[in-house]
Amino acid sequence: MILHNIYKIISNPKIFVYTVLWLMVLVFFGTIAQKDIGLYASQMKYFSTYYFILFDYIPLPGGRLTLIIMTVNLASSLFKKNLWKMKKVGVIILHIGGLLLLVGGGVTAQFSSEGNMVINEGENIDFVDDYHRMELCLVNISLEDSLEYIVFDDELLSEGQIINYERLGVKIEIISRIENTRIQNRVTLGDSIYKGFLKEFVLLPKEPDKENTQNRPSIIFRVRGSDNNSDGIYGLFLGQRDLDIFDFKKNQYFTEFRRERSYLPFSIELLDFKKVLHPGTNVAKSFSSEINLIESKVPRRVLIQMNEPLRHQGYTFFQASFIEELDGEATVLAVVKNYGRLFPYISSIIMSIGLLVHLMVNLPKMIRKKPIQISE
Amino acid sequence: MNKNIKLIFIIIFLLPLSYVSSFTIGDIPIQDEGRIKPLDTYARNHLLAFYGKRSISKINLSATDWLLNLVLDPEAGKNLKIFNIRNPEVVSSIFLDWSTDHKYSFNQILPGLRNQAALLSIIDEKPNNQRTTFEKQLIELSSNAMRFEEISYLKSLRLIPPNIGSEDEEWISPLEFILNGLNPDNYQNQILNSLQQYLAARMENDESAMTSSLVLYESALKNIPKNLFNIDTLKKETWLNQVNLFYISLGFYLFAFLMLGFSWMSNPNTLRKLSFLSLIIGFFAHGYGIILRMIIMSRPPVSTLYESVLFVSFIVILFALILEYFRKDGLGIFVGAVGGTIFHFIGFNYASDGDTLNMLVAVLNSNFWLATHVTTITMGYGASLVAGFIGHLYLVQSIREPSNTAYLKSVYNNMFGVTLVALFFTLFGTILGGIWADQSWGRFWGWDPKENGALLIVLWQLMMIHMRLSGLAKAQDFALGMSLNNIIVAMAWFGVNLLQVGLHSYGFDDGVAKNLFIFVGAELLFSFGMYYWSKKKSKRSISI
Lengths: 376, 544
Description:
The structure holds 2 protein chains of 2 kinds. Chain A is an alpha+beta fold. Chain A folds into 3 domains: about 1-75, no CATH class; about 115-125 and about 265-335, no CATH class; about 130-260, no CATH class. Chain A is about 30% helix and about 40% strand. Chain A is built from 5 helices and 18 strands. Chain A has helices at about 1-10, 15-45, 65-75, 90-110, 340-365; strands at about 50-55, 60, 115-120, 125-140, 150, 160-165, 170-180, 180-185, 200-205, 220-225, 230-235, 245-250, 250-275, 285-295, 300-305, 310, 315-325, 330-335. In chain A, strands 3, 4, 5, 12, 13, 14, 15, 16, 17 and 18 form a 10-stranded antiparallel beta sheet that branches. Chain A has a 4-stranded antiparallel beta sheet with strand order 6-7-10-11, with no helix packed on it. In chain A, strands 1-2 form a two-stranded antiparallel sheet. In chain A, a hairpin with a 2-residue loop joins β14 and β15 (about 300-305). In chain B, the strands form 3 sheets. A two-stranded antiparallel sheet of chain B has the order 1-2. A two-stranded antiparallel ribbon of chain B has the order 3-4. In chain B, α18 runs antiparallel to α19 and α20 packs antiparallel against α21. Among the domains of chain B are: about 25-230, no CATH class; about 400-544.
């Protein structure tokens, strides 16, 4: 009985109406907010969360929670006895398709990952840079025939964290983490606590750009337990050219602050990047990257262009952007691994079948002039 | 009625034949803004940019004639009052006196512009969104003057195809040919010679020599080894410029509306049929215009904001015709004639910006997705607007005759049916858009403003339908909901461009914002006003 009552509540179509209404509110404000805070931040605040806090103390359901409620409501409504009738077959198919779409969205939200690859012409790369997460990397350059990488993930790099890495007997304390960085010359020289790059420069925060990928993040940290005089405060920023050198346990290391990398089971070499303009204008007609997909040392030539991505081993590579410099061109490929990719395709087919069946059964009644009771 | 239908079809099949005519000077191909277009289009767009109109009606001069006169006699052309300056600030800044027709000649504006060179270079360095209206207009005037001068000595007329015939290659203007001392190919030589002959003949006013030189020109074009353009398509475009099918369709829609109005006063049956017929003829002219544009650009019907306006109004008329066919009581005609007329005027507004047949940026340059996603979603806009329109009529009707429940019920049924059709198109248009996004940049959904706009329409319609079916909303509430849906459609269609973020922000100017707010305000006022009035009325009629 209690179960039945709960079922009655969660399958109430009014819940759907209210969740849709709330979702519209979210979509509206989430869209307006993009003008000020950018697409990514707005997405994180309104859509990809279970709840968000308005005016510092009012918690409100976020997009994810709203969609979950909608999914549960939709799924439970399919068990209603009076739904399973021949004349409602279109409606049933339609709702199953909708459910599949929502489930697919959930799968994508939970299990997909994305990033990008920046490849210069002639370069061969086998990793993907994350858009948002960073990593701190120590590279041992004293080994004879190889490089040893020690990588600290984004979670370890928040302000105030102390990383105690016993194998090297080193302690790294994160003093500050800057989202977008301005670099200035240091005015008062001579404070010996600052080492390396920070001896001559200071890293200062500046207004973050709306698009997170436009920012130049940096990190300031203190090192203890190194050999010689390497203890002190260091600063690193994304894209830094001259890297600071340390001595730990008689080995030389350099540090790098970079976008978090995930490695591919194959590599991609950019042979040529092409940009074609509409003649006599600055409007691009097409972009394309001619690449070698190298797997077990065997290259295969592939052309990636706008609207024609490369799909390989569950990864999809898209022509996203490009960089033009004096010494050559680089392509920017967006890389996505999404297990929920096929859901929208399947569900849209199911839903269109459902709606068409329903329209075919009901539309003639609606379009006629003489009033006829429409079925509930 | 049957005879009339036959007549329509005869007219429609005869229409295309009228442009299978001889090759005229307006048809000669020129490369401009990334595509190969007839000289007629080139001349019209430039005259529009300078003069504000596509011909100089005061002295009965077509755009092509104006351009050729300018080339043949630059001095006379530079004294022709061709620059339309509508801002007194701009006029006084170039040391001229404000005249009532606000038209000035090149020779009048040139000294002033030279004097303002320092100011112009400062404006030039500013990004466009930081320029004031005055600055934008001044810099536009100066670039127009530059373009004008380039035309006058044949610099910007890229009339000659390059000898390596790739479609991405830039064409060459006669001036560049002379300056660079290029050695012309056989066909290039032919083109240059026949052009020279034509211009000489035109100077002499020798009609027969002009005709024979154009025959030469056409045969020279046919000798070009690579297939860069189609002469028939060029002719079609010139024809479309001259005939202006969308003025014709507008005329028929207005006539349909007028006849419908008269049919309410007298002789309802015949006049209504006449009105219906007029709507159908307008519809065919409208559709034919869209088809010709598709042939000229070889792409699907909708790829720019202007084209979406044309196509949405086409869909509105289509639904209106279907409604009228079944109802036969003028409701469909009313929806079609009013909707079609309004959208034609919105369309003309966009067309006054210049060439409406523009090239597309790389990501949009995909015929498959333009054909599926964009077409579906614009059909959804059209169907939604029809449902909204019927919603208005329902509200009005429930004030006029609240007791006529049978009629109200039938209007409601139409509205509900059209809403379902609209939902079909908006929903699948949106999903197809997601699939395009998945194909192009790897994510199905990214909460981009345009995506969100489309989603809002879908959600609103889903909500209204479920509210109605679950008993939360009555027929009147549903009519209100569908009327308000128009606001959401307008916001998704034009409003998201206000935000100027995301991948879809194209084709936007300040005037749109003002019009949009006026529309939203009027719609809110009308819908809620009618809704509460009708509620009051229905309560009273029950209590009586």
